[in-house]
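quick q for whoever's on today - can somebody do inverse folding on this one?? i tried earlier but teh output was garbage lol. tokens:
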């Protein structure tokens, strides 16, 4: 499963894993959300509802380019710098290319759709 993400003048794809929350997000597409900066290493957006969980747990190899879901807040997270695992963080997939599109600062409309 691949998704296409667009905001500002940026466009990039993400390959999702086969987890239950990734499949649930994919079933909601297309989505028009708002993406914004959070902390110094990530961008976040809020899907219209919390994603279904299951079969996900702790991981220790988090790195820039990961696409995750933070269950306690119900937001999706695009990491553009390294980070540490936090309870409730579920990896959904990885950006297919460099993280450069995520370095554009600010809040923007975000379009997520299924990639061809």
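ok took a stab at it. sequence:
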């Amino acid at each position: 499963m691949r998704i296409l993400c667009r905001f500002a003048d940026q466009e990039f794809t993400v390959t999702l894993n086969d987890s239950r929350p990734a499949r649930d997000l994919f079933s909601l597409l297309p989505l028009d959300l708002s993406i914004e900066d959070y902390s110094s290493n990530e961008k976040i957006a809020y899907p219209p509802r919390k994603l279904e969980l299951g079969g996900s747990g702790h991981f220790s190899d988090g790195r820039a380019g990961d696409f995750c879901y933070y269950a306690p807040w119900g937001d999706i997270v695009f990491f553009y710098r390294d980070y540490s695992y936090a309870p409730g963080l579920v990896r959904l997939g990885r950006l297919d290319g460099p993280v450069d599109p995520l370095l554009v600062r600010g809040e923007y409309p975000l379009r997520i759709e299924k990639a061809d």
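fwiw The chain is about 10% helix and 40% strand. also The chain has one domain: 2-114. so keep that in mind when u check it
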